[in-house]
Amino acid sequence: MLAQLNRLIVIAILCATLIACDSDTVGSLVGGSNDVIVSMVYGSEKQEWLEPLVAEYNAAKHETADGSTIVIEADAMGSIEAIDAILSGQIQPVVWSPASSVYLPVAEARWQEQYGTDLAVKTPPDLVLSPVVIAMWQPMAEALGWPNEPLGWSDISELAISEEGWEAYGYPEWGEFKFGHTHPDFSNSGLVAILAQAYAGAGKQRGLTADDLLNPDLTEFMEQVESSIIHYGSSTGFFADTMFNRGPSYLSATVMYENLVVAQETKRLSGESAQTPVVAIYPKEGTFWTNNPYVILNADWVSDAQKEAAEAFETYLLDRPQQERAVALGFRPADPAIPLGSPLDTDHGVDPDQPQTVLEVPSADVIENTQYLWRQAKRPVDLALVVDTSGSMSGDKISTARNSLVAFINQLSNRDRVQIVLFDSSVSVLSPLTPLADKREDMVRRVSGIIEGGDTSLYDATLEAYQQIEENGDPEHIRAVVVLSDGEDTSSLRSWQDVLQEIGTNGEEGGNAIKIFTIAFGDGADTTVLQQMAEPTGGKQFTGDPATIDAVYAEIALFF
Fold it and tell me: Which CATH number fits domain 2-125+294-338: 3.90.550.10, 3.40.190.10, 3.90.1150.10, 3.40.50.2000?
């Protein structure tokens, strides 16, 4: 239920954002009287390839059989968020192209239940391919035996629970093993990660069953792997960008797509990045392909003319010139007749002969049960929620902040420990750091009664929350502080330098340190200060207002 609520909140805000966008957005009706509009939502992992092709296709003014001009309107959206939005009726695209077919069994079952028909008008073809890999810094991979020894989830599990960490391999300066993958209720790569863990824990490559997921040994295996997670998130690209920007002290390895490793190594080899080399590990237990299926929806809002136009664009994308452009960006072509050359080579950290073992996509009920198992096995969070209640928060600000905070709390697990810190002219602890299971209803009541007034003690409140999480938080948990403020500090006893010194001393460039996520709420917020609070810790700064604050809190919740 918590995951479903989480999804609905994100979907509602995503759809509100789409409605507010310009004429190129999903579902736009702008076009000439003889235009056939094909709206498409697709996984952002192929945006660099797809976006210019859409522009070129539209510029060429391709036509249907009756002479109507085909207009493609394509927007990037998370694979699972997109189908949730489609099934809820919030968006009505002609084409849905998720990152992979892994979630198709669930989508098909939900579509059949809702509409009584097949999801797609025909079997969806693959557009481009990229295996899901574990991206790891080359020196770390070599310490584990790469490339001579096959590596996989068992090695990740062993590293995750090792008290010695990298010291056991002769590199104490590397510290603990730090791992990352996205949230499997929203992101394809996160879902693939936990399915691969389940297969590895069950010792299978196909035929995973619901009974397998009941095995305590499998649960323990997943708990071990998840124990090294620094945080989750909604975007594979965010993990890639953060890992490649911050380096080995932030993340040792993360689950991503092979083409992202190629993109990073291309930058490094060209001199755009001075980072350590990174390599793709293809888990010895098996992995999945991101095959980017092109699903023309079998929906009553899709006309015959739109189906014809969608198929014409499909043909264009699968033509050899467009496929060769995908190869240049690090994708594998859908057409096996197209040879694999640079940059799909060892110089760019990948092995074109891999993967050797491809896992079978399980049934819908097994996928959903694996998501449920992950929610029980994932690393808990110790979280301080810091809320500005100064006088400038009056009106819509305080009411929407209260409602959004309640929704955020309801997305957290009973295993999570939460405290709430309020600040105006002074700082007060509304609720101490204790398990949410013991106080969820009480905390919701207390948050619902928050009132505003006084000045802004932003620095004092942030330091108070940070120090309490540092003192009372469990190092085995994800530890984080979420700060919402609508103005500049006006009454703290401690200075901005005090905050920076505390964060700088304990930041560790992110990694397993306490992370700070900040929300600049409204036009008066001090975005510079809030950004400087978040970035050294590996957190993130967000901007929100009464209309978007639900979406901001929902996105932050996906890190946990």
Answer: 3.40.190.10
Q: Which two tokens stand for residue 533?
A: 């609070």
Contacts of 489 (CB under 8 A, 6+ apart): 456, 457, 458, 459, 496, 526, 529
Determine the pLDDT at residue 29: 37
CB 13 within 8 A of CB 554: yes
Average pLDDT, the chain: 90
The whole-model pTM stands at 0.85
**97, 99, 100, 106: CA torsion to nearest 10:** -70
Residues 499 and 421: their CA atoms lie apart, in Å, by: 16
For 212-232, what is each residue's pLDDT tens digit? 999 999 999 999 999 999 888
3-state secondary structure 304-370: HHHHHHHHHHHHHHHCHHHHHHHHHCCCEECCCCCCCCCCCCHHHCCCCCCCCCECCCCCHHHHHHH
Give the C-alpha distances (Å, rounded to integers) separating 60 from 37, 51, 70, 511. 15, 15, 10, 48
2-125+294-338 with 380-557: one CATH topology? Answer: no
Q: Are 174 and 166 in contact (CB under 8 A)?
A: yes
Do the beta carbons of residue 394 and residue 402 sit within 8 Å?
no
Residue 2 above 70 pLDDT? Answer: no
